Amino acid sequence: MAKSDGCDYFRRTSLFWIVAVTLSMGYFTVVVLAPETIPFEHLGPFGSVCSYLVENLSDLMFKMWLAAWAVHLFEASIALRMCSQKGITDGGTRFLWFIQTFLFGFASLGMLLKKSSSLAMSAGRLPSSTVNLLMRSSSIKARSTHCLTRSSSMLALLTTTATLRRA
Predict the structure, then answer these.
(1) Within-domain flag for 43
(2) Predominant location of this chain (predicted)?
């Protein structure tokens, strides 16, 4: 069996992230593009929040949906750049990284960033300041995602409380 030089390195993201991102982006897409197909009344407080957002903030929801896909496209382009810096020259492998990162976002890009920083540092391809910047940006994104989740939870709680007070 021949040993690889790293030009065809690819790892699939974990099943957890595949399922989580597919379900959340799929639901978000249906809420934005075809909200009439979702039985919000059967989803409890979550359905009440989604119904409120669709009825009152549909234009904002559409812009957020576009922004989410734009961020995934940006992350996919970063994945291609990281493939180049890492020495992944095989076109099929680069395509796999691009598609996987476009579909699953940071769950895929994070694996490439971690692997590329360790390999590139050992090979002398990236200066340590670049690696530090990449790792810092990944921790900032993780923190901002956590804050966004907490903000969304608070919005859901406030909307549910307001709905219950009206009833």
Answers:
(1) yes
(2) membrane
Q: H helices of the chain, where?
A: 15-33, 44-56, 58-86, 91-104, 106-123, 128-166
pLDDT bin (cut points 50, 70, 90) of residue 121 is: very low
Tokens 């099929």 belong to residue: 92
| Vertex 109 angle, CA 95 and 59, to 5° | 95
Residue type, 95: F
Asked if 134 and 113 count as a contact pair (C-beta separation under 8 A), the reply is: yes
Cα–Cα distance for residue pair 41/48, rounded to 1 Å: 7
Q: What is the pTM of this model?
A: 0.64
Per the structure block, which two tokens stand in for 30? 């249906």
And the tokens for 125?
């391809």
Domain of residue 159, residue span:
15-166
